[in-house]
Amino acid sequence: MRIASGGSMPVSPRSAAADELRPTDGTTNSGRLILVVEDEADLAEVLCYHHQREGYRCRQARDGAAALAEIQRTRPDLVVLDRMLPRVSGDEVARQLRRDPHTADIPIIMLTAKAEDADELVGFALGADDYVRKPFAIRLLLARVAAVLRRERLGSRQREVLASGPVVLDRGRHLVHVDGQPVTLTVTEFRILGALLAANGRVLTREHLLDLVLGRGAAVTNRTVDVHIAALRKKLGPAAGCIQTVRGVGYTFRVSAPGP
Are residues 218 and 239 in the same domain? Predict the structure, then answer.
């Protein structure tokens, strides 16, 4: 079991610190389903215990193949995913979830011993919404889960449709179309595109995008935004050029005027 001893939460009794992680926006965790995909049985049990204590429902899968089968049976609200899994790797699980339109918007938090910056960037490129390195503090993971679900919940309340040039983004239905063709995006890519469209041509710094999409104080680098932008451009196809880089500043979404 790989939990940081200095920041871990005991299995019992209930601590006052856990109450600090309760939602403060009038919502509750009741009914939200977390799928923990972890091959270390003891760690998986501890993770489920603490999530259930916070009011979540929790299920477990010990390998990637079992995780994919479980998701097909019952769609979770969020997946805590180890990268190094038997049978089917966590990377492949993330790939398959993002490839399937029915599961592409499920938030993923990668929980892994792969702790190099390059590994983290690969995780985000695969579609992770957050990345927690082992060993870790339980409180940190619970806070990350709450933050990702809060962003997803707030996003679902917005029913506006944003459009610019060939791109149409429907926040309420979590749909994106380019030239009338549907495009499947991860939750993070969807939020970045939404922020750029809502800026109406203004330049957004990398720091501002991080705050908007991942939350203020997220423990990631500006390079993380670049990885998401690269993936987003690839998926937008003919509209990729609308996301323009402003050197030394950040990004903007602008539709180029047609040539003569």
Answer: yes
The answer to whether 108 touches 165, Cβ cutoff 8 Å, is no
Q: Edge-to-edge, what's the strand order for the sheet holding 78-81? A: 57-61, 33-37, 78-81, 108-112, 130-133
Longest CA–CA span in the chain (Å) reads 72
80 DSSP β-pair partners: 36, 109
Q: Indicate if 39 and 128 belong to the same structural domain.
A: yes
**Which helix (H) or strand (E) covers residue 232, if one does?**
helix 222-236
Same domain, 42 and 111: yes
- What are the tens digits of pLDDT across the range 29-83? 667 899 999 999 999 999 999 999 999 999 999 999 999 999 988 889 999 999 9
User: Mean of the pLDDT values across residues 140-145?
Assistant: 92
**Contacts (Cβ under 8 Å, ≥6 apart) of 121:** 223, 224, 227
Identify whether residues 162 and 89 lie together within a single domain: no
Q: How many domains does the chain have?
A: 2
Domain containing 132 equals: 23-155
Could you tell me if 76 and 164 lie in one domain? no
**Residue 206 burial (C-beta neighbours within 10 Å; 0-12, 13-18, 19+):** middle
Indicate the pTM of the whole model. 0.57
pLDDT (0 to 100) of residue 57? 92
